[in-house]
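Task card 7
Instruction: Convert sequence to structure tokens.
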Amino acid sequence: MHIYLGADHRGFQLKTDVINWLTSRQITFTDFGADHFDAEDDYNDFAKKVATALLSDNRPDSFGILLCGSGQGMCMQANRFKGIRAVICADSTDAVETRGHNDANVLCISADKSYHNYTNILDAFINASPLTEEKYQRRNEKLDQN
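Output:
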């Protein structure tokens, strides 16, 4: 498993905590920043880096994790890339369902709203598996169609 990680200024502190969490579980990751707090940085830049890296990675157990204040901007930017299925999860139930039903590959977390339960969300997302029933595969294939 490999994680591609990115955060803007509002997700910066949570990213530090996520790095500690990943390290304690011996999960490898690439940190695409921000590498310092900059109140004027743009979420778009970090989402693009994570999405691009994830799309070039052929491992089926690689994911992106994006952190910003609401999760919304990161999610919208990442989903502009064909093959990225970014989702915002507010709790572990969201994480399990979106991995299972939608084969989500980028987890966006609101640093403002989910800071206190982010470890539950991460655990659930990383440990859930896409469902293999035909209806889920059919629906997920349609996500990448124009």
